[in-house]
């Protein structure tokens, strides 16, 4: 009987360990989006309400489109992602947030939602406070 109880406890510990390892990545509730070093920003940084997007059901991979769900989530300005200066091109830092026709950029997604009648920020001053 004791061996059975120990087996059950070991199984529970294994299940708990595996479930903790595969649990969703904890994201900060809020973060500040700033241009990376070497890219001159023309507007103030954006305070991004991560928790609000999570609550709205936005999947992590929508914005973190190269994330494999196993490794650590990288920022948009990580080398090789959106780390280039300028306003055009997929790797431009600006494009990650402002591409109007991309549903995984902030502005692109918010424009889609606005067309659906939802109240979301779409103007510069809504996101970039003075």
Strand order of the largest sheet: 1-2
Please compute the radius of gyration using only Cα atoms.
Answer: 20 Å
Predict the CATH topology.
Answer: Cytochrome C3
Provide the low-confidence segments as ranges. Answer: 9-23
Number of helices: 6
Q: Average pLDDT, to the nearest integer? A: 81
Question: What's the structural blueprint in terms of helices and strands?
Answer:
Layout: H1 2-21, E1 31-33, E2 46-48, H2 50-55, H3 60-63, H4 93-98, H5 106-115, H6 124-127
Question: Explain this structure to me?
Answer:
The protein has 130 residues and is mainly alpha-helical. It has one domain (26-127): Cytochrome C3. Helix content is 38%, strand content 5%. The chain contains six helices and two strands. It has helices at residues 2-21, 50-55, 60-63, 93-98, 106-115, 124-127; strands spanning 31-33, 46-48. It has a two-stranded antiparallel sheet. Residues 1-23 form the signal peptide.
For this entry, give a set of tags:
single chain; 130 residues; mainly alpha; Cytochrome C3; two-stranded antiparallel sheet; electron transport; transport; Multihaem_cyt_sf
Question: What does this entry show, briefly?
Answer:
This protein is mostly helical and 130 residues long. The protein is 38% helix and 5% strand.
């Amino acid at each position: 009987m004791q061996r059975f109880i120990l087996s059950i406890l070991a199984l529970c510990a294994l299940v708990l360990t595996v479930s903790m390892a595969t649990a969703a990545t904890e994201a900060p509730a809020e973060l500040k989006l700033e241009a990376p070093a070497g890219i001159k920003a023309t507007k103030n940084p954006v305070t991004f309400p991560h928790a609000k997007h999570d609550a709205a059901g936005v999947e992590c991979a929508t914005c973190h489109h190269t994330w494999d769900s196993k490794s650590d989530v990288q920022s948009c300005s990580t080398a090789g992602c959106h780390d280039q200066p300028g306003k055009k091109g997929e790797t431009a830092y600006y494009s990650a947030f402002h591409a109007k026709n991309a549903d995984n950029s902030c502005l692109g997604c918010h424009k889609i939602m606005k067309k659906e009648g939802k109240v979301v920020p779409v103007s510069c001053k809504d996101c970039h406070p003075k």
